[in-house]
Design brief:
alpha+beta, two-stranded antiparallel sheet, six-stranded antiparallel β-sheet, about 220 residues, single chain, about 25% strand
Length: about 220
């Protein structure tokens, strides 16, 4: 786990460079009822609990409900390391975003996801998932961290507390994270990431990334 935790700052930078996902449409509460959740193991100390915008570290196996065949195993990818992703922003299928809410480190769940919250009528041929497939996932959560768009992350970068991020503030943050990570990078990496962050987040082109443009999360969207 130590190696994975070292990777977190750089993952945050990459995720920050992604355009923020739009707010989920109304009706998510109703959709959540369609995901069946069975808690297989719950730690005595169940904290913190995951929420939208958190950075999660988990292993999960995927099965077709129709015949029980396994179509995905995270342990066979990335040298067996658990997967990192931001919860609730569309980096996994909608059913998993719903199924992994309010989950704590050490918790294990078995979830059943209907086609409408998975790959729908089109299926996913590359992943060997047929059309209209109900999916079953067995999930083990290892870590819940503040995501790249949390209030805490925003405030960490916003040195002058003016509720907007300047190019200088983000540049300094990049330098600090690169130094902390300790990996050798091409000299152009800093400028490329900085430019990408502003391209995808500075929507009004004023040279700053406001709290609204950053789309921070604090339990609910601000």
């Amino acid at each position: 786990m130590g190696r994975d935790m070292i990777l977190v700052p750089i993952l945050l930078l990459r995720l920050l460079a992604m355009a923020p996902a739009p707010a989920q449409a109304e009706g998510v509460a109703a959709a959540a009822e369609e995901v069946k959740i069975e808690v297989l193991h719950l730690p005595e100390s169940c904290s913190p609990k995951s929420k939208k915008g958190d950075l999660l570290n988990a292993h999960y196996d995927g099965f077709l409900a129709s015949d029980g065949s396994k179509f995905y195993c995270s342990r066979t990818q990335n040298e067996g390391h658990p997967k990192w992703f931001v919860l609730g922003v569309g980096q996994v299928i909608k059913g998993l975003d719903i199924a992994m809410m309010n989950m704590c480190p050490g918790e294990k769940r078995k979830v059943i996801i209907p086609p409408s919250l998975a790959y729908g009528q089109q299926g996913y041929a590359q992943g060997k998932i047929p059309p209209n497939a109900t999916l079953i996932f067995e999930i083990e959560l290892y870590a819940v961290n503040k995501g790249p768009r949390s209030v805490e992350a925003f405030n960490q970068i916003d040195k002058d507390s003016d509720r907007k991020l300047s190019e200088l503030e983000i540049s300094q943050y990049l330098k600090e994270e690169f130094a902390r990570d300790g990996k050798k990078r091409h000299p152009s990496a800093h400028d490329e990431i900085l430019a990408d962050i502003f391209k995808k987040n500075d929507h009004d082109g004023d040279g700053f990334i406001s709290a609204k443009e950053y789309n921070v999360y604090q339990h609910d969207e601000l």
